Amino acid sequence: TLLIIDFGSQVTQLIARRLRELNVYCEIRPYQAVTMDMVRQLAPRAVIFSGGPDSVTREGSPRAPQEIFDYGVPILGICYGQQVMMTQLGGRVVSGEGTAEFGRAYVQPKTPLPLLDGWFEDGREQVWMSHGDHVAEIAPGFEVYGTSPGAPFAITADVSRHFYAVQFHPEVHHTPKGAKLYENFVRLAGFKGDWTMGAYREEAVARIREQVGDAKVICALSGGVDSSVAAALIHEAVGDQLTCVFVDHGLLRLNEADEVVAMFRDHMNLHVIHAQEQELFLGALEGVSDPETKRKTIGRLFIDVFQKYADQIDGARFLAQGTLYPDVIESVSFSGGPSVTIKSHHNVGGLPEKMGLKLVEPLRELFKDEVRALGRELGLPAHFIGRHPFPGPGLAIRCPGEITRDKLEILRKADAIYIDQIRKHGLYDEIWQAFAAILPMRTVGVMGDGRTYDYALALRAVTSVDGMTADYYPFSHDFLGETATRIINEVKGVNRVFYDCTSKPPGTIELE
Ligand code: XMP
């Protein structure tokens, strides 16, 4: 393992990404949580200090445990991490006017250093700087290996102890040789780069077996990638001790429930309960048009239903969840702070305590694309793994205003045609998420020689990295025209189609 101590940089997760790309396993821990007991338990082979927003010159600013410098493993300090190293090892950092440097800078070599193998082939190297303070005096034992106009100590090292300190951010894109620097660092630390998905699968299976023993596990299968991969992995570990509950709330897409259940039952051999609760959900949603009421109604019923089925499984002691790494990192920079609820998200958060269940979360160490790789490794079909996200409340939030069975029927057909069009034009993988929504209004049209008074649809497609921000997808007019025509011709009850050109912000991805 490689330990990354997070001092609150906005880009700490990128360090982890760079290391995973080198097939090195790493864990991020906030500096407050790093004690020598914790370090000894994790037994890292190397440590990286991240950047951070504070100033080491401020009293009480974050530090690493002093004894970590005697622990005997290589340490790489980045930006604030560099300054922490210098301060704790006897150097001096100053802040003040004229020492700040933000953005592109160029480092010149001074003396060759194995950490910099592959650097300076064309003289200088571009790096990305973002610092207010700078090192005025390096710590005893350190020497300078690279300088920039604003940072005379841009790259320093104590080679005998394998301590390296850089002022810039090698993890960001704008430091083109940054990945090479990480590669050199992990090689110097003795990592073989043999952490693969195959290896992860084996380790994870062993860990699940140890945690679960011969107890039973239940899992709420949503058909999404995360819960599916978690279920497949747990099934590999404990076989029929796992029972999945697939709650069909009547708000799924065309044929979705049957496809998901068939795939898990027939293709993957999992024990799946198909909870057919359409009437319960649609009944409770009758006459409801407020978005938050819809979401809360669905969330509450989901928990009730899941609990009802779970209660029928004798001796269930564990609840499986597809929690991912970005959800669990106690990131220093993002923790805390009051935030406004834009939408009540659908999850089973409070369930484990209520039911006295322990959690099994086998994807806690993985990023989304790693979960996809693991899914492929476990034999889930590629088309399934690459599916666009689908929200827990399903079509309910794509049907602004009151939900009726007619509207859901129209929506299912139109959505299927839209997605078919996107696949036919080879655009599915370029788009992060695409769907149709049915608008709460009717408009007048003319078809054949008759007047129509039918529903209008909105089509939505966005590009995004994490769903937090998004841009609308720039379809060609031909594509939009062809798709609108197909939908209106093939779906009875629709006579108008709009394309939603709103990005997020100010819009959200879903309409409610
Ligand atoms: P918004 O509409 O908030 O959506 O921009 C961002 C992403 O989250 C999905 N989404 C949900 N996913 N439960 C989920 O599992 C929910 O309640 C929920 N609401 C929105 C949405 O589809 C998009 O990918």
Automatic annotation (TrEMBL):
Keyword Nucleotide-binding in annotation: yes
Domain GMPS ATP-PPase span(s) in chain numbering: 195-387
Amino acids binding ATP: 222-228
UniProt-annotated catalytic positions: 79 (nucleophile), 169, 171
Enzyme class: ligase
Cited Pfam families: GATase, GMP_synt_C, tRNA_Me_trans
A cellular component term, taken from the record's GO annotations: cytosol
Keywords: ATP-binding, Glutamine amidotransferase, GMP biosynthesis, Ligase, Nucleotide-binding, Purine biosynthesis
Reactions that this protein is recorded to catalyse: XMP + L-glutamine + ATP + H2O = GMP + L-glutamate + AMP + diphosphate + 2 H(+)
UniProt cross-references to InterPro entries, sorted A to Z: Class_I_gatase-like, GATASE, GMP_synth_C, GMP_synth_GATase, GMP_synthase, GMPS_ATP_PPase_dom, Rossmann-like_a/b/a_fold
Pathways per UniProt: Purine metabolism; GMP biosynthesis; GMP from XMP (L-Gln route): step 1/1
EC number per UniProt: 6.3.5.2
A molecular function GO annotation: GMP synthase activity
SUPFAM superfamilies, alphabetized: Adenine nucleotide alpha hydrolases-like, Class I glutamine amidotransferase-like, GMP synthetase C-terminal dimerisation domain
Function: Catalyzes the synthesis of GMP from XMP.
Assembly with partners or alone: Homodimer.
Protein name, as recorded: GMP synthase [glutamine-hydrolyzing]
Species for this entry: Thetidibacter halocola
Lineage: Bacteria, Pseudomonadati, Pseudomonadota, Alphaproteobacteria, Rhodobacterales
